[in-house]
């Protein structure tokens, strides 16, 4: 059977510029090791989707310039901030697009 | 404000909203919703011992396995009453939970509405509330329509009753004319005051009722039974301790 | 589900639908011409990425119990799962989490403390100081640029990141 255990660098090759990437909604369990690798590789043009809701996952990708578009119904930051901080900064400057969902 | 009780705004709103909770029905509020949570618990004590209460994010009143189950429950028509607060509400029954200013370059940005727009379609009775009754809250047309008061022709929804409760007054959404109207003014306030602080035309014709007075029993129950239960069950315990007064 | 769209409740009359005409439309109910319904275009993400507890070489993983991971994995063309530990074989009955079979997973990556600075319930708490540091750094382009340099660009691997933040994973990639 196929071996699927790979390094973070190898797994990151799966992601291409412009891809739509989906994440689970909570602050816990954010796949930070992988997100940092995507940032390191300077992947661009990603649309990041948060189901249901988003937090550090979407916000980090926005801040790192990896995502320029996000889709979710709510982008807060638990008790740390009312609105996800990079989202707030970049949206107020008109530098990203949010696809609101209900 | 009702004399003698020295109510906080949160207490006043919770009491008035508690009257909307019916026995044997399922009532719900979202996360970060201290006032409606209090209202539902008070409503259960006062008149609705068999009410099913859902307080998302709470320890004891959040019965679903995953987050989306609550929304599916609502979509299937299993909720009877839902509480909503928003940054703006307009005369057409629309509400705004997203931005002030341009959506793509806003002045004020909120995290989003976490399904509230859908719930506005799915739940037959909606009670909106606001801790201030001001022209910036009650506007002619919301900056961004997060939830629509009226659906375009033919698109069905379950909504049949929409009320708004503020520290000054109670508004009702007229289901025929599709416009917000003044239902009653609370004791201590005048119709003129309400009109002056509302950013749209309330279209007042004739006498306006006074909201039934807040009673000693409501206040006492809130400040004893409900307050201690909220602290014990860790349902917004800090807010209960600081925003609900001592009996 | 392999279908182009699904009927959905809500949306009609909102700015959400107004701003996304390519994703949401209002159509006549094919079974009742008096009624109209909102339909939402099917979402087919290119990649799903999440972090879980355990994984094995074949790609079976154990993720959190009450999340959406299985649904997201099934909807996406490729799935990457980073995991706290690699085991010989992930047990379908393992009550620590929720089993996702290898057929839904493209790549498994070993990354102990892979959620840091966020937490993994039951294993490690969120690093509140570091998250607050992140929030503070997000204030300007310049400060977040410095943050990225420190934690991303000047760090070559997840292992080096852990050394930088002074953490040693308790678990090693030992086959059980």
Structure overview:
With 102 residues, chain A is an alpha/beta fold. Chain A has one domain (8-100): Glutaconate Coenzyme A-transferase, CATH 3.40.1080. Helix content of chain A is 29%, strand content 23%. In chain A, helix 3 (56-63) crosses helix 4 (85-92). The mean pLDDT of chain A is 95. Chain B is an alpha/beta fold. In chain B, strand 10 and strand 11 form a beta hairpin. In chain B, helix 1 (9-18) packs across helix 2 (34-46). Chain B is globular, with a radius of gyration of 18 Å. In chain B, 48% of the residues are buried. Chain C has 2 domains: 5-41, no CATH class; 47-164, Glutaconate Coenzyme A-transferase. Classes of the chains: A alpha/beta (102), B alpha/beta (247), C alpha/beta (176). At the A-B interface, helix 4 and strand 5 of A face strand 7 and helix 4 of B.
Describe the SSE topology.
The complex is a heterotrimer of chains A (102), B (247) and C (176).
Chain A: E1 5-6, H1 8-12, E2 20-24, H2 32-40, E3 46-51, H3 56-63, E4 67-72, H4 85-92, E5 97-100
Parallel strand pairs in A: 2-3, 3-4, 4-5
Helix pairs in contact in A: 3-4
Chain B: H1 9-18, E1 26-29, H2 34-46, E2 52-55, H3 67-75, E3 81-85, E4 88-90, E5 95-96, E6 99-102, E7 105-109, H4 116-122, E8 125-129, E9 138-139, E10 161-165, E11 169-174, E12 179-185, H5 191-196, E13 209-210, H6 216-232, H7 237-243
Parallel strand pairs in B: 1-2, 1-3, 3-8, 4-9, 8-10, 12-13
Antiparallel strand pairs in B: 4-5, 6-7, 10-11, 11-12
Helix pairs in contact in B: 1-2, 2-6, 6-7
Chain C: E1 5-8, H1 15-18, E2 24-29, E3 32-41, E4 47-55, E5 61-63, H2 69-75, E6 78-86, E7 98-100, E8 107-110, H3 128-137, H4 141-153, H5 158-164
Parallel strand pairs in C: 4-6, 6-8
Antiparallel strand pairs in C: 1-3, 2-3, 4-5, 5-7
């Amino acid at each position: 059977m196929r071996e699927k255990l790979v390094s973070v660098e190898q797994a990151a090759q799966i992601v291409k510029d412009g891809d739509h990437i989906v994440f689970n909604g909570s602050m816990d369990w954010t796949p930070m090791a992988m997100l940092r690798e995507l940032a390191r590789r300077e992947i661009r043009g990603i649309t990041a989707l948060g189901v249901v809701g988003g937090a550090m996952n979407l916000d980090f990708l926005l801040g790192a310039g990896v995502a320029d578009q996000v889709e979710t119904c709510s982008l807060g930051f638990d008790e740390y901030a009312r609105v996800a901080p990079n989202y707030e900064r970049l949206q107020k400057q008109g530098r990203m697009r949010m696809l609101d969902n209900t | 404000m009702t004399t003698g009780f020295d109510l906080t705004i949160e207490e006043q709103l919770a009491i008035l909203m508690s009257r909307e909770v019916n026995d044997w029905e399922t009532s719900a509020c979202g996360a970060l919703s201290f006032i409606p949570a209090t209202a539902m618990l008070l409503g259960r004590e006062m008149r609705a011992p068999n009410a099913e209460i859902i307080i998302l994010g709470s320890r004891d009143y959040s019965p679903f396995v995953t987050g989306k189950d609550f929304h599916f429950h609502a979509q299937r028509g299993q909720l009877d009453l839902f509480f909503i607060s928003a940054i703006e509400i307009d005369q057409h029954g629309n509400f705004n939970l997203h931005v002030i200013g341009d959506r793509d370059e806003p002045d004020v940005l909120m995290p989003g509405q976490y399904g509230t727009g859908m719930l506005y379609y799915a739940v037959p009775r909606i009670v909106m509330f606001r801790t201030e009754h001001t022209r910036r809250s009650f506007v002619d047309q919301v900056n961004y329509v997060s939830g629509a008061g009226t659906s375009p022709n033919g698109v069905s929804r379950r909504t049949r009753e929409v009320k708004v409760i503020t520290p000054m007054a109670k508004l009702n959404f007229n289901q025929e004319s599709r416009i917000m109207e003044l239902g009653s003014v609370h004791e201590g306030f005048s119709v003129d005051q309400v009109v002056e602080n509302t950013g749209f035309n309330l279209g007042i014709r004739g006498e306006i009722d006074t909201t039934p007075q807040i009673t000693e029993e409501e206040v006492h129950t809130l400040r004893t039974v409900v307050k201690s239960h909220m602290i014990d069950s860790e349902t917004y315990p800090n807010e209960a301790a600081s925003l609900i007064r001592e009996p | 589900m392999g279908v182009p769209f699904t009927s959905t409740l809500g949306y009609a009359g909102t700015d959400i639908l107004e701003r996304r005409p390519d994703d949401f439309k209002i159509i006549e109910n094919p079974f009742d011409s008096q009624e109209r319904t909102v339909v939402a275009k099917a979402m087919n993400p290119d990649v799903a990425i999440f972090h879980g507890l355990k994984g094995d070489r074949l790609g079976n993983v154990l993720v959190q119990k009450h999340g959406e991971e299985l649904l997201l994995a099934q909807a996406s063309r490729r799935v990457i799962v980073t995991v706290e530990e690699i085991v010989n074989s992930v047990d379908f009955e393992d009550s620590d989490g929720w089993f996702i079979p290898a057929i839904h997973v493209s790549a498994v990556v070993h990354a102990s403390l892979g959620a840091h600075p966020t937490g993994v319930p039951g294993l490690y708490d969120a690093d509140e100081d570091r998250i607050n540091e992140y929030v503070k750094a997000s204030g300007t382009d310049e400060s977040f640029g410095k943050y990225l340099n420190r934690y991303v660009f000047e760090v070559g691997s997840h292992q080096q990141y852990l050394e930088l933040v002074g953490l040693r994973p308790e678990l090693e990639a030992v086959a059980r």
